[in-house]
């Protein structure tokens, strides 16, 4: 009888352990769900205009009008176009042709491609991932879009005392824990070389490792000039990796880029 008592007392009470494990899993899942909800709530559904931008320093797109039609009315060079100038003469030639055509109300037909469509699909995932990783430093994040996905604002803040020759339709911006506004630019790629260049930049600050990274670096510097912001976040989704590059505004660098744009404009 004593043996039976000892044996029974040592038998595992599986039903209690099962309930305990189940409760732990439920609690963890609930905590994860609350964390995700908290992160998502930091992304404001209404695209808000950047502060300290005068009425003459931005263009607001109409969500009910075809975006391609509205693009034609933009006379300024785009920030991404400026970035492309620095990766080869072919891009410079194309940009010069586009400027001439725009001057006579003509343009090269816009061509969509798989890479661009893929980028648009991954963009929302990238926003969520950025907030998930850097949630502790984000008060609220604003996408520069309407609910239907159409871009909302194109910025061209005066550079010094001159009108800005460049306009930038940024991906988004956020207010950090110090109450300061920061730019967010998202890029999606599968390039191993680009991944290496991104890692190199974060280690050494070298933005010349890869011509495509240099293109994006120029784009962000120009976007900072167009928005008046001091800090940009160039956030990459490359394969299975999410990597952010913090880019501080470099006015000396921007001045050289602007000088080049002025020269190009004077020739067109």
Automatic annotation (TrEMBL):
<dbReference type="InterPro" id="IPR011604">
    <property type="entry name" value="PDDEXK-like_dom_sf"/>
</dbReference>
<keyword id="KW-0614">Plasmid</keyword>
<dbReference type="InterPro" id="IPR011335">
    <property type="entry name" value="Restrct_endonuc-II-like"/>
</dbReference>
<dbReference type="Pfam" id="PF09588">
    <property type="entry name" value="YqaJ"/>
</dbReference>
<dbReference type="InterPro" id="IPR019080">
    <property type="entry name" value="YqaJ_viral_recombinase"/>
</dbReference>
<feature type="domain" description="YqaJ viral recombinase">
    <location>
        <begin position="76"/>
        <end position="229"/>
    </location>
</feature>
<protein>
    <recommendedName>
        <fullName>YqaJ viral recombinase domain-containing protein</fullName>
    </recommendedName>
</protein>
């Amino acid at each position: 009888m004593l043996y039976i008592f000892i044996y029974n007392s040592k038998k595992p009470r599986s039903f209690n352990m099962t309930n305990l494990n189940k409760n732990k899993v439920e609690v963890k899942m609930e905590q994860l769900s609350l964390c995700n909800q908290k992160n998502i709530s930091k992304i404001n559904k209404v695209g808000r205009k950047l502060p300290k931008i005068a009425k003459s320093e931005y263009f607001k797109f109409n969500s009910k009008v075809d975006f391609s039609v509205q693009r034609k009315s933009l006379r300024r060079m785009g920030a991404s176009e400026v970035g492309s100038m620095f990766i080869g003469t072919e891009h410079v030639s194309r940009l010069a042709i586009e400027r001439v055509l725009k001057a006579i109300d003509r343009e090269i037909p816009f061509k969509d491609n798989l890479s661009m469509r893929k980028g648009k699909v991954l963009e929302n995932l990238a926003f969520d991932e950025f907030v998930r990783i850097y949630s502790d430093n984000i008060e609220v994040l604003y996408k520069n879009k309407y609910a239907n996905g159409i871009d909302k604002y194109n910025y061209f803040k005066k550079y010094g005392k001159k009108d800005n020759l460049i306009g930038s339709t940024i991906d988004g911006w956020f207010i950090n824990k110090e109450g300061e506004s920061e730019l967010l630019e998202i890029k999606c790629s599968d390039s191993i070389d680009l991944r290496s260049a991104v890692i190199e930049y974060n280690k050494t600050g070298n933005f010349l490792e890869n011509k495509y990274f240099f293109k994006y670096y120029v784009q962000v510097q120009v976007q900072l000039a167009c928005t008046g912001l001091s800090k940009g976040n160039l956030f990459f989704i490359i394969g299975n990796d999410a990597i952010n590059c913090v880019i501080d505004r470099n006015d000396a660098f921007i001045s050289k880029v602007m000088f080049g744009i002025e020269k190009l404009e004077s020739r067109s």
